[in-house]
Amino acid sequence: MPEKIRLSILTQEIERTLHNRFEEAQIWVVAQITDVKKQPALKRCYLKFIEKNGADTAAEIKGVFWAKSYAQIENFEKLTGQRFEDGLEITCRILVRFNSRWGLSLEVQEIEIAYTLGSLELERQQTLERLVRDNPDHIRLRDGQYYTRNQSLRLPEVIQRIALVTAPNSDGQRDFLRELEQNRYGFAFQVTEFLTQIQGDHADRMILEKLEEIAGRLDAFDVVAIVRGGGSQTDFKPFDSYDLALRVASFQIPVFTGIGHDRNTSITDLMARQEKTPTKVAARIVDHNLEFENSVIQLKDRLFDLTERRLRTVRDELTGIRRMIRAASPETILRRGFALLRHNGKIITRPDALQAGMQLHAQLQNKEIQTTITDIQPKD
Amino acid sequence: MPDKPIAELTLTEARARLQELVDQLEKDTVELDQLPQTIGEAKQLLDHCEEKLRTIGDAAKEAGGSWWLENK
User: Which of A167, A271, A281, A290: disulfide with A258, CB 3.0–4.6 Å?
Assistant: First the structure.
C-alpha cells in the first residue's frame, strides 16, 4: 500500500519546496495578462499570466497586485496611455507565492514601463514597414515622411460636401459640426454622417465598412473626414490597424483625419491629411474655401484696376489730342503774333501768288487790316 | 460671355471666366465700348461665387446629407 498523506501535509511540502527555491527571489517575468479584475477601492488587482504557443496556452499562473504595488498599475496607465487590460504583454518583477488553500500565484512588485512602451512602438513600426514594403504604389517613405496616394489627390477648389466618419453623440462629432456651422465667413456645408463605433474591438473593421459605403457614392462627396475626440492610447488602437491605414492611403477622394489631441498621431493619421483635432479639421476646410474666395476677390480687384488704368490711358490720350488740336488751331497761331493773309476772301497759302498792287486782308489776333502790297522782296 | 448662364456655372468655371476677363484686359483686347459689359460680367461672377459659397443648392439637398450648415 503506497504511503498516504493528508492534503495539507502535501501542500505544506510544496510550499516549503517553493520557498526554498524561490525565497524572496526577485524574478522578472515576460507574459501576457488576462482575466484582469481591478478592485480600486481595495487597491487590489487579480489577473492571470499566460504564455501562448500558437493557439495553445503553454503556461498559466494566477497573479495579484496587493495594495503596496497597486500604484504600479495607475503609473503604468498614466505613462503609457495604455489601459492595463486583457491582452497586454508586460514585463514585471514578481515574487513566487504558494498558499495551501489558494495555490500558486505570482505577487507583482513592479511593472517595467519601458518594455511595454517599446513593444507598442515596435508593433507600430512593424505595421508601418509592412505598409510601405507591400504597397509601393500607395505609400512611400522619404526622409522620414510618409507620402501616400491619398495625400497626393488634389483637393477640390471648394469643399462643401463632406462624408463624416465619427462616433454618434461624441465630442468629435459635436466639435467638428460646430466649427463648420459657426464659421465666421458664412460658408455653407453639406455633411453626411457615417456613424460608427470608433474604439474597442473590431472598431477598425467598422470604420472600414463605413469607408466602403462612402466609396460606393464617391460622386456625392468632396472629401472624407474621420474624427474623434481625446482618449487613452488604447482607444486609438483601431487607427493603427494595417487594413484601415491602407484603405485610407489608397482612398479615391481626399481624407482628413482629426483623431484625438495634439500628442496623438496614429498610423491612419500618417496616411491622410492630418489635423490634430476634429475642430482643426473643420477649420482647415473653412480656410480652404476662404482661399478660394480670396482668389476670386483678387481677380475682381485686378480686373477693376486694369479697367481703371485703361480708362485713364484713354483719358490721357484724348487730353493730348485736344492739346495738339488746340496748338494747331488758327487762334493759337494768331496769338503767337502771326497773321493770316487773305486775298479775295481766300487764305494765301502760296507766297508765289502774291503780286505788287494786290489788296490784302490781314487778320491779326485782335485786329484786321486792309493793306496793299507795294513791294515784294525775296527773303535770304 | 461663357457658354452657359452665370447662374449655372460651377465655382471653378466662374473663377476661370474671371481669369479670362483679366487676361483679355491685360492683353488689351477689350474694346473701349465693351468695358462696361466686362465690368458688369465680373461683378455678376463675383456675386455668383459668393452666393454659391454660402448656399447648399436644392439639388444637393435632394441628393442627401445629414446636416446642411448654412450660416446666413
Answer: A281
